[in-house]
């Protein structure tokens, strides 16, 4: 395909396994030239082993020492590549250098913030002031979900400037297994850290085990609270299997081993693990602190959104485990709902945001709307 003279750069922290295909699709199908600039190849808390996609990539550093990302060399790279449009995904110093570069060079800016209105309530006055300043300079906005849309609107951003670009996995790679053949009843998957509430998960499993004696629990992940979690389960005679940290391909097989996925979290702006579970036909129980709540996980349709009360979680889990038809309905609805969260939608949302930013509004929209 012959490309236009428009060049778009996507400036973000580090590569992630859930974005590679989107970048490929944009590179392959967009009229403009597209590249991705990463602050580093890896951050301190990530163990991902990635195969990078087929698209132009620049790395500003090998491994980030902190999450702050202060790469002054981004200025030299931007002077070399000269993008017409710069997309930033955070407000780290590196991205703010990019904002300043756009101001001085008269280039368009797009913000793709995956924060939500609730998750950014705690930000300092200075942090909010920086966002307010940047948003006034921004030509268009990308949002993974309704929480981010609400965030943008709280700063006075008009709806017409906001484009949905979902967070997703390759749904076709997730395995499905009939519910009656699944070995485990409930599953934990993620970092075993305080933010993910693994000890609340343990409390639910312990209480459930007293009412559902044949309970089998699957735990996937690793983290500083691993020993506490496993010891608590063992001391309370819960039958569990600990799979540890799994690479992405192996992990995709594990969601189909459990009838339910308990997504406990103190704060997740989205929660890609819910996409993985839904694509496997595994209903999700979570709280309003997960961005997927009310969008990908709809209460009483394909899962439950509950307060952090052990008895409430136990009663809703038992409701599903004792009603095979309801469990099957939730499973089917999970598969149907997650279909619209795909890499093509994500890529099309990005392309729409670029077309709006450069004034090519006649080409809108490409992205399919996401309906809960």
UniProtKB/TrEMBL annotation:
Stretches assigned to the Glycosyl transferase family domain: 178-334
CDD domains (UniProt xref): GT4_PimA-like
Single Gene Ontology MF annotation: glycosyltransferase activity
Domain of life: Bacteria
Protein name from the UniProt record: Glycosyltransferase family 4 protein
Species: Pedobacter agri
């Amino acid at each position: 395909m012959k490309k236009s003279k428009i060049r778009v750069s996507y400036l973000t922290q580090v590569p992630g396994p859930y974005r590679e295909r989107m970048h490929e699709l944009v590179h392959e199908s967009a009229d403009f030239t597209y590249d991705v600039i990463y602050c580093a190849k890896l951050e301190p808390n990530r163990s991902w082993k990635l195969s990078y996609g087929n698209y132009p990539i620049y790395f500003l550093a090998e491994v980030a020492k902190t999450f702050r990302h202060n790469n002054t060399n981004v200025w030299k790279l931007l002077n070399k590549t000269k993008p017409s449009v710069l997309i930033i995904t955070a407000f780290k110093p590196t991205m703010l250098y990019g904002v300043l570069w756009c101001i001085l060079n008269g280039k368009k800016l797009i913000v793709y913030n995956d924060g939500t209105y609730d998750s950014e309530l705690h930000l300092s006055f200075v942090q909010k002031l920086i966002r307010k300043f940047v948003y006034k300079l921004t030509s268009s906005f990308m949002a993974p979900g309704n929480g981010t849309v609400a965030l943008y609107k709280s700063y006075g951003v008009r709806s017409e400037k906001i484009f949905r670009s979902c967070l997703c996995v390759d749904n076709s790679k997730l395995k499905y297994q009939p519910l009656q053949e699944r070995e485990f009843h409930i599953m934990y998957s993620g970092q075993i850290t305080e933010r993910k509430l693994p000890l609340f998960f343990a409390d639910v499993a312990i209480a459930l085990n007293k009412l559902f004696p044949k309970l089998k629990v699957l735990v996937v992940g690793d983290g500083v609270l691993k020993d506490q979690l496993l010891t608590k389960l063992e001391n309370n005679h819960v039958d569990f299997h600990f799979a540890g940290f799994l690479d992405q391909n192996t992990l995709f097989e594990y969601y189909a081993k459990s009838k339910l996925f308990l997504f406990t979290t103190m704060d997740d702006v989205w929660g890609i693990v819910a996409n993985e579970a839904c694509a496997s036909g595994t209903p999700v129980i979570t709280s309003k602190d997960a961005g997927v709540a009310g969008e990908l996980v709809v209460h009483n349709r394909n899962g439950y959104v509950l307060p952090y009360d052990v008895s409430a979680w136990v009663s809703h889990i038992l409701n599903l485990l004792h009603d095979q038809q309801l469990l099957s309905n939730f499973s089917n609805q999970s598969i149907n709902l997650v279909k619209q969260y795909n890499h093509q939608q994500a890529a099309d949302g990005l392309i729409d945001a670029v077309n709006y930013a450069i004034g090519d509004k006649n080409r809108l929209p490409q992205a399919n709307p996401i309906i809960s």
